[in-house]
Amino acid sequence: MGNETESEPSSVPYGILENGATFADLESGDRAASSQRGTENNSYHHGEDCSVITAAAAAAAMEQVETDETRFATKRSQTEEEEEEAREDAQQRQQQQKRNQPQSVRMLSKRLVLVNLLANFLMFAIAGFITYHCFNKATVLFSWHPTFMAVGYLVLMSQAVLTLSGANLLTYQRHHKTRVLVHWLLQAVAGVLITVAFVCIVLNKIRMGKAHFQTTHGLFGLITVILTLVSIGGGVFTKYGYQLRSVVRPIYSKIMHGVAGTVTYILGSVTIGLGIYSRWFEEDNGEQVRLALLIGLIAVTLYVIINPIAATISRTKTALRTTL
């Protein structure tokens, strides 16, 4: 018994570890570690959610930018249309004010009225003389070609251009939309007559067994008819320019239509002038008659195109100012 050694009892109380920590502290540490892992997991999922939300917000922002750009383009087109109509209405008000101005200023207005009456007289007189010459001796298929061309270009197309430019005595007091309606109605009828006149000369050439487009008058006539149809198509595009604003800005379509229409009208007058000096017309009309018709034709042409040229220049300046 003296040889037996008894184990020395531990000096650390039960429930307390050697480092002084208790079981409660261990449990508390485990709970803290679990809470930290949970926080990390929540942070990870929260990061994923933030990424999804950020992508959705970016897509929404892009859609908003595209919507704002579309609204801006639409507003700009509406502004251009409103400016155009306001300019036309302002011109009408100016003309109305001129009639209420003193006698010295009204004399100028009377002169403009006389010029308008003279231009109308010349265009109807030239077209009437050509028509009379076509049916003076006989009525044949060829007779309808000069007649419809003269009426289509000199009368209907001239009146259509003057109506839209505000220089027509019968329509200058009307609203801009009314003048636009009258313009395209006259142009539509003119296009029909010009097409019929072209078909008549082609059929007459076939009937006579003659070659087509062998003269300067014939070549200019072919080019003029093609440009006329193109210009009429451009007029339809311009009429619905606001609905087609996604394709081209309305002011650009008006500029292109104004340039094409002016060039076409000038070519039409040149073609009629060449017809006046053709061999067919020279047979029964002397040099003085043909020279008088040519001078009248030039006067009518200059009077008709002056306002469209000024309007096209004004629109071009507006387009450049709003673009640059």
Automatic annotation (TrEMBL):
SUPFAM superfamilies in UniProt: MFS general substrate transporter (SSF103473)
Cross-referenced SMART domains: B561
GO molecular function: metal ion binding; transmembrane ascorbate ferrireductase activity
EC class name: translocase
Highest taxon above the source species: Eukaryota
Transmembrane segments: 112-130, 150-172, 184-206, 218-237, 258-277, 289-311
Topology with respect to the bilayer: Multi-pass membrane protein
A Pfam family assignment: Cytochrom_B561
Cofactor requirement: heme b
Domain Cytochrome b561: 106-314
Main location class: membrane
Ranges of compositional bias, category Polar residues: 33-42
Region of interest: Disordered: 1-46, 63-102
Keyword presence, Ribonucleoprotein: no
Annotated keywords: Electron transport, Heme, Iron, Membrane, Metal-binding, Transmembrane, Transmembrane helix, Transport
Subcellular location as annotated: Membrane
EC number of this enzyme: 7.2.1.3
Keyword match Signal: no
InterPro entries, A to Z: CYB561D1/2, Cyt_b561/ferric_Rdtase_TM, MFS_trans_sf
Any one GO cellular component localisation term in the record: membrane
CDD domains: Cyt_b561_CYB561D2_like (cd08761)
PANTHER family registered for this protein in UniProt: CYTOCHROME B561 DOMAIN-CONTAINING PROTEIN, OS05G0565100 PROTEIN
Protein name: ascorbate ferrireductase (transmembrane)
Organism: Culex pipiens pipiens
Lineage: Eukaryota, Metazoa, Ecdysozoa, Arthropoda, Hexapoda
